[in-house]
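S1.2 Input.
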Amino acid sequence: MAQAVNEPGQTAAKPALGGSGLIKRAISAAVLLPLAVAAAWFGDAAFIILVVLAGLLMMWEWRRLPRLCATKGWSSNSLLWTAAGLFYVGLPCLALIWLREQPVHGRHIVFWLFCVVWATDTGAYFAGRTIGGPKLIPSISPNKTWAGLLGGMASASLIGGLVAAINPVLPAFALAGFASFVAVVSQAGDFTESGIKRSFGLKDASHLIPGHGGVLDRLDGLLFAAPFVALCDLLWGHAIWS
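S1.3 Output.
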């Protein structure tokens, strides 16, 4: 059985912020983030390939979870489990591709979304570790705190506003406020994946990304944030971007 989940917003005794875990996270981010940004910004085909590859890796991890915990009595060949994974992974992938394909604003929307989700993760991570305080939902993720959630929201709002401010096609003030809502949804994705892993008694979905665990672990917030932003775009008729 693996140890408890180590995620943004934790306050339990851990290595200092400059420890090897944080260094691994930083190195992985330095390699992967430019790749994701470049694919989203420069090429439709490149972005679709990247999203499909990430989706396939996440489905591999999803199918792998029951196999790592056979004592729970799960059937790794369950059609229901596979169908749930296709929805859990497939909907966000389709949402990302749909957002990127939007005329005029597509690349700007996806770049903004990436920055907001990354800012949420970073803000929650550091606020949770440095401030601590009351736990948020201890039954799902015992070490996540309200400080981590609020830190993620504040960081997302700040970065979301700044990214929009330097981009002439996006409204900075409106998107700074919208980013805080996206941050809450992103954290809900984080909690959901934590709950899924906890039900299997696992720490990480895999070990594909040093310092982060698996692709599901790295993209858990985006899996909820992307469909949320796409839904808002549909409901408001692109008004949020102008």
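S1.4 Remarks. Residues 1-18 have pLDDT under 50 and may be disordered.
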